């Protein structure tokens, strides 16, 4: 299939495919003399894997490490997944704090304790989550 068909089947644009090729995440098939490059159906699955891994929080560098499975086996995958789980746990903890802060802000508004922009500013900056922290 051509790059345009590949992009359509994988739900990405052509530039995304070219970017993944530059990053070494996708092979670039040889161009036949005077012809158009053709991609096999397995490349669709590889793109879907890349997109899903990104959704799971992996960077493209980490996705490349995952795709290098053959030379490193499951040990590397396990280490990457464990590190990512730690990041997810940190984010969940931050989201719980954000939820508490939003509930507190909503309650203060309902009770009429936020009556000006200044009150709003003071209420928000008095929260638990430090936007400058390493985890944010």
TrEMBL record:
Source organism, top-level taxon: Bacteria
Molecular function GO terms recorded: DNA binding; DNA-binding transcription factor activity; mercury ion binding
Domain HTH merR-type: 1-69
GO biological process: response to mercury ion
UniProt-listed InterPro entries: DNA-bd_dom_put_sf, MerR, MerR-type_HTH_dom, MerR_fam
Gene3D superfamilies in the record: 1.10.1660.10
PANTHER family: HTH-TYPE TRANSCRIPTIONAL REGULATOR ZNTR, REDOX-CYCLING DRUG-SENSING TRANSCRIPTIONAL ACTIVATOR SOXR
This protein's name: Mercuric resistance operon regulatory protein
Organism in which the protein naturally occurs: Thiohalorhabdus denitrificans
């Amino acid at each position: 299939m051509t790059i345009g068909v590949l992009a359509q089947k994988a739900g990405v644009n052509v530039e995304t495919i070219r970017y993944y090729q530059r990053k070494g995440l996708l092979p670039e098939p040889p161009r036949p003399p005077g012809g158009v490059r053709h991609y096999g159906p397995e490349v669709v699955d590889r793109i879907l894997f890349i997109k899903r891994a990104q959704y799971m929080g992996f960077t493209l560098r980490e996705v490349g490490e995952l795709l290098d499975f053959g030379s490193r086996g499951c040990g590397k995958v396990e280490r990457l997944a464990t590190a990512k789980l730690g990041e997810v746990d940190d984010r969940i903890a931050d989201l719980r704090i954000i939820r508490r802060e939003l509930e507190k802000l909503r309650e203060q508004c309902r009770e009429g304790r936020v009556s000006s922009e200044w009150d709003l500013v003071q209420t928000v900056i008095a929260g638990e989550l430090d936007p400058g922290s390493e985890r944010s």
